[in-house]
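User: I'm putting together a small comparison set for a docking exercise, and I want a reference complex before I start. The sequence is below, and the ligand is S-adenosylmethionine. Could you produce the 3D structure with the ligand included, as structure tokens?
Assistant: Of course. I'll restate your input first, then give the structure tokens for the complex.
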Amino acid sequence: MPLTVRKAFQSAANHLNRIDSSSATLDAELILRHATQKSSAALWREPQAKLNQASEQEFMQLLQRRIQGEPIAYLTGQKEFYGRMFRVSPSVLIPRPDSEALIELTLKRISRHSPARIADIGTGSGCLIATLLSERPSVRGWAVDLSGDALSVARTNLQRFGLLNRCSLVAGDLLSPLKSEELDLIVANLPYLTPEEIHQEESIHHEPRLALDGGLNGLSLFSRFLRELRQRQDRPAVLLEIDPRRTRQFQELSKTILPDWLVSFSRDLSGRERLAELRYSPSTISDSV
Ligand SMILES: C[S@@+](CC[C@H](N)C(=O)[O-])C[C@H]1O[C@@H](n2cnc3c(N)ncnc32)[C@H](O)[C@@H]1O
């Protein structure tokens, strides 16, 4: 007997409640909406309507994948970030609300009509650079990632928001593909977890290892990034998302590698020091001598 909207929803919510009660009803509705291609309003206008065969099959498959722990964003192929809907796939990190703090801080640093040249290193879905370019129409962007698959997702998103004419997508390792570019600002949310932390956090196991793994101390990408920054002549300002548990280690690392740069930290919405800001400031050295 074909499932009705109400029955499908109730059955999904019951199953999902056993794996994650905090989002069971929301996930159940998202799966149902995706399988039926209907809005929430359209679904609940006719809760007794029967799902057609294709929708029911799709619904069952999505529910099974969710029960097995796949994040809802990979099932629906999208995730909201800073008020915009981004395409996502299992080749990219799912954009996190925590990273919106990096956007807020960056927007404070660039005035509305600034023609700043901004690079986003480890762009993933492109959520950071696409948001910044959307919010600041005179900015020019570069999006770098080691993963070609991630770059194609970023391309889709930039295209979707009409930003491809202002953003270059570049495959490569950290800052190395941008050696000849003059930049004003670099933003980055580099992988910052240790293998141990990744192992312990089951909810992230479907996300790409390349997007998570920050080496044995979680800071190996940062260490290389800071060394590459030291070689640059353009001295861009740098805004980084970091692991709030490793602020002090990051501070030590940047003092050692970049003694001529000032480092400061800002908090995210939950009050954790998640953002690091670096500015070239050689005078601090001579002042203190
Ligand atoms: C934590 S994710 C951030 C994705 C996106 N910027 C965001 O905030 O949602 C880190 C990204 O860095 C990329 N990445 C990892 N190592 C890299 C490297 N050596 N050079 C460039 N990108 C790298 C990964 O492929 C991944 O897309």
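The radius of gyration is 22 Å. Residues 92-288 form a domain with the Rossmann fold fold (CATH 3.40.50.150).
User: Thanks, that's exactly what I needed.
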